[in-house]
Amino acid sequence: MEVRIAPSWKNLLSGEFEKDYFQKLTDFVRKEYTEYICYPKGKDIFLAFDACPFENLKVVLLGQDPYHGENQANGLCFSVNEGIAHPPSLVNIFREIQEDLKLPYPESGNLVRWAKQGVLLLNTTLTVRANQAGSHQHQGWETFTDAVIEAISSNCQQVVFLLWGGFAKKKVSLIDTNRHYVLTSGHPSPLSANRGYWFGNKHFSKTNEYLLSIGKSIINWQ
Q: How far apart are CA 153 and CA 171, in angstroms?
């Protein structure tokens, strides 16, 4: 697995790539991609970083696993490739954007447009075997992405962290909440959203209000 990652991130995280756990993770991922169908495509494993250079970072949105269905995962959490039906969590994200910002429902589920504006769309596990949710968890990805969160917390000021659901909320322990703006809510999955833990959180307008308050340009969530 080539560590293809934007230079600014490579400089920040270079120490992680030399650690034993990352070498074992690399071996595991190479073997999985050789023997099984895995997602996202190898060239897109680090797309979250390539599409959002460190110097552009404004918002961190945490997901958990890539989608494991055919042609869905593209390296960005909650995002799908062009022409792919929107998964239920993404539908609920877009519905909240509709209500919160009074914008039309977006046609494209590819969220690279958010990444290019400074949103790091980071899954805590970056790869998955086809049709086997969670199959690449506990192999080292979580150690790496925890290090990413800690590096952002330590090296940045006034980043917005969007933590949705119980798994993401646990990551608040890695974030200096005196330096950064953390928003938490239930997960946008139907199970959580239909129980009233997602809709109405207004995270998209709150993010933009905060960015304006610190003199940064807002995110176009459309």
A: 11
Mean predicted confidence (pLDDT) in 41-67 = 96
Query: Using CB atoms within 10 A of its CB, is residue 17 exposed (0-12), middle (13-18) or buried (19+)?
Result: middle
pLDDT digits (tens, 9 = 90+) for 186-203: 999 998 887 888 999 999
- Token pair for residue 94? 């877009």
Beta bridge partners, 129, equal 38, 132
Q: What is the 3-state secondary structure (H, E, C) of the chain?
A: CCCCCCHHHHHHHHHHHCCHHHHHHHHHHHHHHHHCCEECCHHHCCHHHHCCCHHHCCEEEEECCCCCCCCCCCCCCCCCCCCCCCCHHHHHHHHHHHHHHCCCCCCCCCCHHHHCCCEEEEECCCCEECCECCCCCCCCHHHHHHHHHHHHHHHCCCCEEEEEHHHHHHHHHHCCCCCCEEEEECCCCHHHHCCCCCCCCCHHHHHHHHHHHCCCCCCCCC
**Partner residues linked to 59 by β-bridges:** 119, 160
Percentage of residues of the chain with pLDDT beyond 90: 91
Phi, psi (5° rounding) for residue 125?
A: -120, 125
Give me the active site residues, please.
Answer: 65
Mean pLDDT, the chain, whole residue set: 95
